[in-house]
Amino acid sequence: MLMHAFLFLVALSCYIFIKRNRNFTGKLPPGSLGWPYIGETLQLYSQDPNLFFLNKQKRYGEIFKTHILGCPSIMLASPEAARFVLVNQAHLFKPTYPKSKENLIGPLALFFHQGEYHTRLRKLVQGSLSLDNLRRFVPDIEAIAVSALESWAGSHVINTFREMKKLSFEVGILAIFGHLEVNKKEQLKENYSILDKGYNSFPTKLPGTPYKKAFLARKRLQEILKEIISGRKEKRLPEKDLLGCMLNSKDEKGGILSDDQIADNIIGVLFAAQDTTASALTWILKYLHDHPKLLEIVKAEQQVIYELNDKGNSHLTWAQTRNMPVTYKVIMESLRMASIISFTFREAVTDVKYKGYIIPKGWKVMPLFRNIHHNPEFFHNPQQFDPSRFEVAPKPNTFMPFGSGVHACPGNELAKLEMLIMVHHVVTRYRWKVEGSESGIQYGPFPIPIHGLPARFQKQSTQEKRITCGASCYT
Ligand code: HEM
C-alpha cells in the first residue's frame, strides 16, 4: 500500500514537471508512455526487466521512449547512442539519482556530480586505484580470499552472494584505508550493513522503518569516519590509499577537501564496490559450476601457478595475476552474460537532438548495456557462455560492463584483480556444489543467481589435485 502511494507521488510530480516543460519541438522516438501517472512501471515489474527492454527493442528498434518509475524516459540500445550520451555529448546529460538514495550515500559523493568537482574527486579515486597502487594489495587481497574460503569450507550451506559481499567489503576497506584498526572496521561494517538493508526500502522517516534505521546508521558512519579522518590528520603520513589521497589533495587555490566531502566519497566508494563485485564473483562461481569442462581448463591454468608457488605456500605475484589468460576471459564473459549494471540513468540538461529525434530537457536517458551485450550482431549466440569469444576484442563500444566515458568505473582494475585472486584460490583448493535445482535470476537490485547461490564448499584432497594437474598436460 505504502509502495503504491509512493509510486503515485513520484509519478504525479514527474507528470507535473513534464506538463510544465512540454514546450519542446521535434519528433519523440517511437514507443509507448503507457498509462497516465504510472506509465509502464507495472509492466516493467510484472516481468523480468531484461525481457521488458528486449521486447521493446524488438518492437521499436534501438531508440524508444517509455515512462517508468514516474519518469518519461528514452532507452538507447545501440553502441553509438550509448557513446553519444556517455562520452561524446556527456555534458548534455547529468547523473540522476532519487534524492532518498543520494541522502543515504552522501550528496557530495562523486557520482552525483559533473564538472570540476567531479573531475577532482575522480582523479583522486582513479589515482588511488591505479595499477601501480593495486600491485601492493595482492598479498592482502589474497589473505582476505583465503580466510573467507576457509570459513566457508565444511558441510554447511553458505549463501555465496552474502559471503562475497563480506569479502568485497573487506577489499573496499583495504583500498580506502589500507590497514584499519579492527575496532573501527567493525563499527563501519555494522553500520554500513544497516545502511545497505535500508537502501532499497521505501523512503520514509517513520521510526523503526528500514529507511529510517539506514538514515540513522548513515549519521553514525559519518561520526566514525570523522574520527578516523582526524586520527589520520594527526599522524600526517603520506599514505597512498584513497583516504591518504583525499587528505593530501589541494586544488589550484590550495583548498583542501572538507571532512564531509571525504566521508561522502568513502561511503560512495564502499557502496559502488560492494554489491557489484560480489554479484560478479557469484556469477563466476555459478558459470564455472555449470560448465565442468571449462572449470577443468581454468583449474589447469591455475594449478601451474599453484605448483610454481610451492603448492600455494608462497604468495601470488602481481605478474602472475596479469598472466591468467583463460581465467581472464571467463571473467569477461561472466561480466557480459550477467551484465550486472544492466543500464544506467542520465537526465537531459537541455533539449537534445539525436538521429532526427528529440530528447526533451528533464527526460531520463538510459543506455541499455545489457541489450548491447546480448545483441547477436555483436556477440554471436549471446545466450551461450563462451569465454573464447574474448580471444578477439569486442567491437568498439559494444562491451561496457564498467560503463564508459567520464563516469566509467574507476574501480574496474581492482574488481578484476579481486576476481582473479579469488578464482585462483577457489579452483586450486576447493570444490563446490550448488544446492537445489532451481535456476533463475533475482534482482536486489543487481542481478544475482536465485537465492544468492546456496552452495557447499569442500577442501580438495591431494588425490583430486593430482588429477587436475594431469589436465594441464593437454591444455
Ligand atoms: C564487477 C564490479 C564492478 C562493476 C560491474 C562496476 C560497474 C560500474 C559502472 C557500470 C559504473 C558507471 C555507472 C554510470 O555510468 O552511471 C561504475 C561507476 C563507479 N564505480 Fe564501479 N563497478 C564495479 C566495481 C567497483 C569497485 C571495486 C569500485 C571501487 C573500489 C568502484 C567504484 C566506482 C565509482 C566510484 C564509480 C563512479 C564513477 C564516477 O561517477 O565518476 N566500482 N561502476
Nutshell version of this structure?
It comes from Deinandra increscens subsp. villosa. This protein is of the alpha+beta class and 475 residues long.
Layout of strands and helices, then pairs:
Layout: H1 2-20, H2 41-45, H3 49-60, E1 63-68, E2 71-76, H4 79-88, E3 93-95, H5 99-105, H6 115-128, H7 131-134, H8 138-152, E4 158-159, H9 160-177, H10 182-199, H11 210-235, H12 242-248, H13 259-290, H14 292-308, H15 318-321, H16 325-338, E5 346-348, E6 352-354, E7 357-359, E8 364-367, H17 369-373, H18 412-429, E9 430-434, E10 441-443, E11 447-449, E12 454-459, H19 462-471
Parallel strand pairs: 2-8
Antiparallel strand pairs: 1-2, 3-5, 4-12, 5-8, 6-7, 9-12, 10-11
Give a description of the structure.
The protein is of the alpha+beta class and 475 residues long. The protein has 2 domains: 140 residues, Uridine Diphospho-n-acetylenolpyruvylglucosamine Reductase, domain 2, CATH 3.30.43.20; 296 residues, Cytochrome p450, CATH 1.10.630.10. Protoporphyrin IX containing FE binds next to helix 6, helix 9, helix 13 and helix 18. InterPro entries: Cyt_P450, Cyt_P450_CS, Cyt_P450_E_grp-I, Cyt_P450_sf. One of its GO terms (biological process) is sterol metabolic process. Its EC number is 1.14.14.137.
User: What is the overall shape?
Assistant: globular
Q: Which topology of the largest domain does CATH recognise? A: Cytochrome p450
- Provide the domain count: 2
The amount of beta strand, in percent, is 5-15%
Annotated CATH homologous superfamily of the largest domain: Cytochrome P450
Query: What is the share of helical residues?
Result: 40-55%
Please count the helical segments.
19
The overall pLDDT average reads: 91
Return the CATH architecture of the largest domain: Orthogonal Bundle
The CA-CA distance between the termini, in Å, is: 58 Å
The radius of gyration over CA amounts to: 23 Å
CATH class of the largest domain, anyone? Mainly Alpha
Report the strand count: 12
Provide the list of bound ligands, each named once: protoporphyrin IX containing FE
Class of secondary structure makeup = alpha+beta
